[in-house]
Design brief:
Elements: H1 3-6, H2 13-17, H3 42-57, H4 77-87, H5 90-106, H6 117-125, H7 142-155, H8 159-166, H9 169-179, H10 182-186, H11 195-211, H12 223-234, H13 238-251, H14 268-276, H15 289-306, H16 311-317, H17 320-333, H18 370-377, H19 383-392, E1 393-402, H20 403-414, H21 425-430, H22 432-435, E2 440-445, E3 451-460, H23 467-475, H24 513-527, H25 529-534, H26 539-548, H27 553-562
Antiparallel strand pairs: 1-3, 2-3
């Protein structure tokens, strides 16, 4: 055998690790044994959180050196917004619009259009929505458009921003498309399919209200002015009507009679509708803040319409029903909503006549004066008792006193202060007939089988009289029944005076915006010949309003001078 055939075959690395033959056989995989995970308790988790938090508290003591981006804050928010808009990526644009929406509420100063002139163009470029076409029912961009309109509405509350928005032609073009949208002009405001369009309309009219002062006065046949009039006539949404009226009022500012303006496009139907809103001031109408806003917007609208005077006042008052409505409600608006007091707002005072009958007899006899007491106390009994009764009582047919009260009064007068013994009670009662011959002791049987002992024919005096006077009156005929007698027969019946109401308590009342606007409209109407004739004879009513609220005088003084 050769050397090569006798030499042993070397083992491979695989055969050394696994001595079994691997050809045609598979190596068994080690079995996996699952083990439970020991979840830390809540207390342990809290301790771990506190431990990590302590590291965070000491983060300021750590030194960061050589890190990329260190001390580099990156671009500011305005630059990030600008780049997001310019990217044209849908997600980036949506982020930019959402960020602008949040900033317009929390930090509107970050969105200053004068400092960032590119922003108005980017926002206007995203005012697009397929709902503008009534034939399409899919709104792919309606959410973004809604957010953009809300952003413009919010930042337009700043006068610097509102002037920039008002001068942007793209914004005005889109706003006009929204106003002229046939869907929300024809479909009910409760239609869920186009509710987003209705919401867009509300926000757009809010935006127009903020910028209308910068585009006034609206010229005749102005598309935006005509669209607002169309919405005013067709809409039943109260908040939308209020905002539309405010926008139209501002668009009529600075208009005059030198040339036609948008105010000349207002029809009788519009004037009738606006005038009818004033009826919400009636006492039967439910008063709330929305009604007050609608009333104020209506008064301001009529004032701006009539301010130039002339033909416009004539147009407003040429309808008889509308003129009578304004005549009756306008004075009421001068004090509408004010809490003033008059003699009619308070409870009516009870009318009382002056008393002419005799006052009721005193319940107890009067106390003797010092000199009269000394004179009577010197007498012996029963003379002292007789004189005392005559000085403190008098004879009258319908008079009566109880025996016990008569005795108690006598005992009270002389029991403690006099050194003489009192006449016994039995003898005292018997002595009454000696003092007053017309009197008599009577026993009355009551319903409860009890008896009441009275002296009939005498009454207590209001004031004590002298001994001589009492003796003379006691021996004469008793006075007739005097309960129905007048104190003085010659006095005519008269009424007690009533305290007049003091109107000075209303001096401190402040007028509301409705009151001042109504005063401006009143002055505007009285300056014209047609309005002066309509309100002729209303001066007394206006003076009554001034009496109720004195601070109203300075506001309607021109009308009072004209009437």
């Amino acid at each position: 055998m050769s050397y090569l055939s006798k030499s042993p075959r070397p083992e491979s690395a695989l055969s050394r690790k696994n001595p079994t033959n691997i050809i045609g056989s598979s190596v068994p995989e080690p079995s996996i044994i699952p083990k439970p995970i020991d979840i830390p308790t809540l207390d342990e988790q809290d301790q771990e959180y506190l431990k990590n938090n302590n590291y965070l508290k000491n983060e300021s003591s750590f030194k960061y050196t050589g890190l990329p981006g260190l001390n580099n804050p990156g671009p500011n928010l305005q630059y990030r917004l600008k780049m997001a808009f310019k990217s044209g990526l849908s997600e980036e644009v949506d982020w930019a619009v959402d960020t602008c929406l949040q900033a317009s509420v929390q930090q509107p100063g970050l969105l200053n259009l004068r400092a960032n002139p590119w922003l108005i163009d980017e926002l206007a470029a995203n005012l697009s929505c397929s709902i503008f076409d009534p034939s399409e029912t899919v709104n792919h961009n309606i959410e973004r458009t809604l957010n953009v309109v809300v952003v413009l509405r919010n930042i337009s509350q700043d006068t610097d921003n509102s002037s920039v928005v008002a001068l942007n032609p793209r914004v005005k073009e889109i706003l006009l498309l929204i106003l002229d949208n046939k869907i929300h002009l024809q479909v009910s405001m409760l239609d869920d399919l186009f509710e987003a369009s209705k919401e867009l309309l509300r926000y757009s009219v809010d935006l127009i209200e903020t910028i209308s002062s910068y585009i006034s006065p609206a010229p005749k046949d102005d598309p935006m002015f005509l669209s607002l009039i169309s919405i005013l006539l067709k809409s039943t949404d109260r908040s939308l009507v209020i905002t539309t009226l405010r926008s139209l009022s501002r668009l009529m500012v600075r208009s005059n009679l030198t040339k036609p303006f948008g105010a000349d496009d207002i029809t009788d139907e519009v004037l009738d509708n606006v005038s009818s809103y004033l009826m919400l001031t009636s006492t039967t109408a439910v008063r709330d803040s929305f009604n007050d806003d609608l009333i104020l917007a209506s008064v301001d609208f009529l004032y701006q319409y009539c301010l130039p005077g002339g033909i416009r006042v004539l147009n407003l008052l040429k309808n008889e029903k509308r003129a009578l409505l304004i005549k009756s409600i306008l004075p009421r608006l001068l004090t509408y909503g004010l809490n003033f007091q008059t003699e009619f707002t308070n409870e009516l005072p009870m009318l009382k006549l002056n008393k002419r009958v005799r006052p009721p007899a005193p319940a107890h006899p009067p106390q003797l004066t010092a000199d009269l007491y000394s004179a009577i106390d010197q007498l012996g009994e029963p003379a002292r008792a007789t004189v005392w009764m005559r000085c403190c009582y008098y004879a009258v047919e319908d008079g009566e006193v109880t025996q016990i009260s008569l005795w108690r009064s006598y005992e009270k007068q002389f029991g403690d202060s006099s050194s003489k013994r009192l006449l016994p009670a039995v003898d005292f009662i018997k002595n009454v007939s000696n003092a007053f011959p017309s009197s008599s002791a009577v026993v009355i049987k009551l319903d409860n089988d009890q008896r009441k002992f009275i002296i009939k024919g005498i009454k207590p005096r209001e004031y004590p009289v002298r001994v001589r006077v009492g003796e003379m009156e006691a021996l004469r005929q008793p006075l007739p029944r005097e309960s129905d007698k007048l104190a003085k027969d010659n006095i005519e019946a008269s009424q007690e005076s009533i305290t007049l109401f003091n109107y000075s308590s209303n001096v401190s009342i402040s007028l509301t915006e409705i009151n001042t606007s109504a005063a401006l409209l009143l002055n505007c109407l009285t300056e014209s010949e047609t309005g002066g004739k309509l309100l002729e004879g209303s001066k007394e009513l206006l003076l009554e309003k001034v009496l109720q609220v004195p601070s109203l005088l300075e506001h309607i003084q021109p009308s009072l001078m004209s009437l």
